[in-house]
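Notebook p. 47: complex prediction with 4'-deoxy-4'-aminopyridoxal-5'-phosphate.
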Amino acid sequence: QDLNANLDAYWMPFTANRQFKKAPRLLTRADGMYFTDDKGRQILDGIAGLWCVNAGHNRPKIVKAIQEQAAEMDFAPPFQMGHPKAFELAEKLVQLTPAGLNKVFYTNSGSESVDTALKMAIAYHRVRGEGARTRLIGRERGYHGVNFGGISVGGMVANRKMFGTMLGGVDHIRHTHDPARNAFSVGQPAHGAEFADDLEKLIALHDASTIAAVIVEPVAGSTGVLIPPQGYLQRLRQICDKHGILLIFDEVITGFGRTGNPFAAQTFGVTPDLMTVAKGLTNGCVPMGAVFATQNIYDAFMNGPEHLIEFFHGYTYSAHPLACAAALGTLETYADEGLLTRAAEMQGYFAECLHSLKGEPNVIDIRNIGLIGGVELTPLPGEPAKRAFNVFLDCWDKGLLVRTTGDTVALSPPLVIEREHIDRIIDTLRGALRRAA
Ligand code: PMP
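Predicted complex, structure tokens below:
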């Protein structure tokens, strides 16, 4: 394969082409905790692919489920009909979700789940005769995928600024990240729920009767692994309840065991009205997402007056048979190996090792919960995100895959991780931090 000749044939996501051209990184295999690259090197996976391969790579039950389904039925139209695995999967999923979130709507990605949930929230108020509730509130430094709804409620400036008009009527709650006060807190920072009160200000500004929903990630991943301060999510829930506003949790990263429970909603003891997932739903093997909703929301659409339309939204590939099969194989693997609570068992050791990086060059904060962690670095002067990217490159050279989110190095390893993998991740990262000094 002539890489250089082929480089321009194919447009990678985001700005990856330029980086790839400078230093092509080609992955050719994946097993368990490791990728193999085109030179035959083993690369320890410190980020579960892209926060998704929670059970580790190439798991036999998932592979078999996909192969068997492909031979049995390749596609089934999702409109006006169903197929057994879609129902079987829904039944299994709602046994894992927080009590009350018992309805499942299938999508194909995190971005689709987010836009689906936002539309559900607005339409829910409308079918109940509260059509003025169209405003949406996200959070600064929130990330909710790349579709127009997601970038509108999201708070990543780089993802928005080139694309013209965003959704109207969107505001953002001030973010909670304050390195001065968070610094080196193990687990949840303790500075209380005061940041959530910013929501009250936005509500006062617009009047609650115009607001449909608030959307947040329980733990923000892609904008730097930001753990909510104690009481923050509880306070958001209280405020939303008080004003009849729906609360949406985007659990695309935190879902399926990342924080020590099936969902972060359970870890933090707060149940949203709508919850978006993707990634770990199929262990990253086949694209699939879902939105979980309460009975109340379902009833508004499905058991309301006949003349009102149902929720008019859906995708050709919703409940795709291959995706449903992959998800069933994934849930079986999670259950067999106790993976949805494994992060709770491993988080003590993970936290201890991660926090041993305190004092390494340029480390200004370390954040963790379950098996997700972030090491924030002082930026290189005038070159934001560059130092963390240098650390990423160094780790890659030493056979470790991490992710950078601005100036934070993010870790989110497969949940099958053992102590020796944690040791290697931390040793490699420590070396890279010292070399990047
Ligand atoms: N929401 C969150 C919280 C995410 O982290 C992501 C992806 N990292 C998305 C949505 C978008 O998911 P996808 O890339 O599958 O569209």
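Notes: The chain is about 40% helix and 15% strand. The longest helix spans residues 110-127.
Next step: compare against the earlier run before touching the bench.
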